[in-house]
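Design a sequence for this backbone.
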């Protein structure tokens, strides 16, 4: 069992190194692209030719989106850097979460049936809290509830949110029922888990 946990920790460490290394490479590439665009580098140098041949074609789709949004297309390297940073952080978070889930499952499996039950209850509350967060963030970035990416969050949280929306009035245009549901789940978990352990 300890060997499995050591392998999982090594995998998580490796993913962190790859994510940070990939981000560092993108910083160099996007910095070079910015330097070429702003004429800080000689436009006829090897670096400038490499950037125009290899980097800029990959940024054209982002530039097109920026133009359609009415912003300056020269911000494409910065936007790409932001996207890569978010992707690297998500990769690290997902890997660490999966490693933690497997480690919890292994430890609960060796501790007996009550520990497995407590773990399943904790995971259920964690999944519901995650679904609430996804629901809130998707409403901020205007992703529809029927999108394949967020539909699961609405399916899981509608039984909690809809009764709360009937009870709790909105504050201006702000619906606070997801916040109430989130803290309600935290409170219920803190009551249920110790009762199962006791």
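Sequence:
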């Amino acid at each position: 069992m300890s060997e499995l946990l050591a392998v999982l920790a090594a995998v998580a460490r490796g993913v962190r190194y790859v994510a940070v290394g990939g981000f560092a490479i993108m910083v160099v590439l996007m910095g070079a692209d910015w330097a070429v665009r702003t004429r800080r580098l000689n436009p006829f140098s090897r670096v400038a030719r490499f950037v125009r041949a290899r980097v800029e074609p990959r940024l054209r789709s982002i530039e097109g989106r920026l133009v359609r949004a009415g912003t300056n297309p020269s911000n494409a390297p910065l936007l790409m850097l932001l996207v890569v940073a978010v992707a690297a952080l998500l990769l690290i978070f997902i890997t660490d979460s999966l490693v933690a889930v497997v480690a919890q499952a292994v430890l609960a499996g060796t501790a007996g049936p009550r520990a497995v039950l407590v773990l399943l209850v904790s995971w259920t509350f964690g999944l519901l809290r995650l679904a609430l967060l996804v629901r809130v963030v998707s409403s901020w970035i205007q992703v529809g509830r029927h999108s394949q990416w967020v539909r699961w969050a609405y399916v899981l949280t509608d039984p909690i949110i809809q009764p709360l929306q009937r009870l709790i009035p909105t504050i201006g245009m702000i619906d606070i029922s997801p916040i109430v549901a989130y803290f309600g789940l935290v409170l219920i978990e803190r009551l249920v888990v110790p009762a199962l352990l006791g």
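The radius of gyration is 23 Å.
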